[in-house]
Design brief:
Elements: E1 4-9, E2 13-18, E3 21-26, H1 29-41, E4 49-53, E5 56-60, E6 65-66, H2 78-92, H3 104-120, H4 126-136, E7 146-148, E8 157-160, E9 163-167, E10 174-176, H5 178-186, H6 193-200, H7 206-226, H8 237-242
Antiparallel strand pairs: 1-2, 2-3, 3-5, 4-5, 6-8, 7-10, 8-9
Length: about 240
């Protein structure tokens, strides 16, 4: 009998693996609704939905492995990173999903609140927060909405023989800024951005990418710490913020 592996578990949701099946448990059914519909709409490889019985969604594992992990150097080929860029471009060129994403005003207000709390709670030094809030300003500009994954971490894209075999975890998919996906995918792997952009097939504003690196890191550090994850590990979110100093 296959063992039960706890992939991730915190107060909001949990993901378990049993053999080649992943069980996602989430009491917020709106997130699961988005995930299921986004996977059906996305023009890229996604996991097969096996069954759904709230609050559980069962999906099949996708073949292959990721290009690496946050905090660790990637040994994947430049071609694999470029293929990732091409797949991301394919998603961004697809028709928009029917639901909206966060607006610019909402995002700016959230960032400002989070920066205040990071300093007030002593999670990060004030100078580090202030500098990265300045860098993040480059991302806070009007953008043309694209079909975005919304949480395109390197651990969410799988490959086999340099080909994308599956993209997982679509619960934050929405209409959003295409450069946010590119920034999320290359977070902590800045040396691979050139390969990704080459595959993406168009020039990108590097200041905006850097802005999203800072913005995303500022928004998630406190949540990660409070939920038992190590944002201070080498190469992870706090190091991304320190690199902007």
């Amino acid at each position: 009998m296959d063992e039960v592996e706890v992939v991730v578990a915190h107060s909001e949701r949990a993901t378990l693996r049993v053999g080649d099946v992943f069980l996602k448990v989430d009491t917020d059914q709106s997130r699961i609704d988005v995930e299921v519909e986004a996977m059906a709409l996305a023009p890229v490889p996604t996991p097969e939905v096996l069954w759904r019985k709230p609050p559980v969604l069962a999906i099949a594992a996708v073949p292959g492995a990721t290009l690496g992990r946050l905090g660790e150097p990637s040994t994947a080929s430049p071609e694999a990173w470029a293929r990732a860029g091409a797949a991301i471009r394919q998603l961004h060129d697809a028709p928009l999903p029917p639901w909206p994403g966060r607006g610019l005003d909402e995002l700016t207000a959230e960032l400002d609140r989070e920066c205040e709390m990071l300093v007030a709670k002593g999670v990060l030094p004030a100078d580090l927060v202030t500098r990265n809030r300045q860098v993040a300003e480059a991302a806070l500009r009007p953008w043309t909405p694209a079909f975005t994954h919304g949480d395109l971490q390197i651990a969410h894209v799988f490959f086999e023989a340099d080909e994308v075999t599956g993209i997982i975890d679509w619960s934050e998919a929405s209409r959003g800024d295409a450069l946010y996906d590119l920034a999320t995918f290359t977070l902590g792997h800045e040396d691979r951005l050139g390969d990704v952009v080459a595959g993406y097939g168009t020039e990108v504003d590097l200041d905006v990418i850097r802005g999203w690196w800072s913005l995303r890191s500022l928004l998630v550090v406190r949540w990660l710490v409070e939920h038992g994850f190590d944002a201070f590990a080498p190469g992870c979110e706090v190091d991304v913020l320190r690199a902007r100093m």
